[in-house]
Amino acid sequence: MNGAHDMGGMMGFGPVEPEKDEPVFHAEWEKRMMAMNLATGAMGEWNIDKGRHAREDRNPREYLDSTYYELWYLGLERLLAERGLVGADEIAAAKALRPGAKVARVLAAEQAAAAMARMVPYERAPAAEARFKVGAKVRTRQMNPAGHTRLPRYVRAKAGTVSIVHGVHVYPDVHAHSPDEQPHWLYCVTFAATELWGGDADPAITVSVDCWEPYLEPA
Amino acid sequence: MSDDHHHDHDHDHDHPDSVLSEMDLRTRALESILVEKGYVDPAALDALVDLYETKIGPRNGARVVAKAWTDPNYREWLDRDATEAISSVGYGGRQGEHMRVVANTPDTHNIVVCTLCSCYPWPVLGLPPVWYKAAPYRSKVVRDPRGVLADFGVELPAGTQVRVWDSTAEVRYLVLPMRPAGTEGWTEERLAALVTRDSMIGTGLPLEARKT
Asked: What is the pTM of this model?
């Protein structure tokens, strides 16, 4: 979806302002929010793409007016509600009004570090040959899907060159909306800044974006 | 994402006696609901906070970089299979499943972003700083990376190629900065102290040898 999260190339946000000696968290609630997000993710009731979509699929005003951990809160509240795990009435009452549903897994404290250290790869065995090789000239499709996608707007309908063939990876555009992973070949495609931003752009700049095969056609 | 929010958080943190913020109340309520319903063990939340606040951070990545600077075989392994090379020194897991290392050279500078959200190589860098997740960086760096570098006080030599990497998939990019001059014969440990977090994102450079 063309949401406010898709920020590449937008203007007017001002300079980047790094914070000197920035702490990992800026408030106690941010710590609990980060941990709740990871612990509920471990229940296995949704996947990373559904998680991202729950944060991004909202009014641009709300997205832009929220801090990152506020978006994590809003996304988690929606994921829990959509699955009937926590009702809006319980959020409003600030307490559980019904017993919990049965979930696949509850993360135990003594397993937490090991669970985070575990690799959860997104690469899958190929079912077909890769359509493009390193060096291939490709063009991203013009597409404006209503659902989740990882092809940013600034890089749609643009010509580039395949610079890395990553392998076959779970396809977020489908995985965000169904249990199906529909894995596709994933490529790193490199674009000249002049292709993305026009003739005034610096010719010494390139931008590389990871693109699944359905995003691409031969140039 | 506004600065106002950000400052509120700082103040809450500094003044525990003050009235709890709305987000304090909402996250406390959500946590108690999750615990009452048996979905979450509060001790697991404590363990996760401790893990990402005190154990997993950019010193991990700095050790990888220092090893690459001193061990040509390790450097070659990083180029060939960064996931395996990085996990061989103990840094793997969540958000580090598919690692790629992009090396700076005298002619080329690399800089990493996630314009769509906040993808970041947690096992080697920890959780991302606020600026990495915020609109100014995500919007600007793919269009004007030199301007972003200027925001960080970094100016590259004229003619340096700039490569921006937008992490749109589950591949996570780590910048291998150039080894600072004047560090011949240094141990890995001493070199690692020169490697800043920002130099591994590409918004900074390693510290100079004379500054340590």
From this structure: 0.95
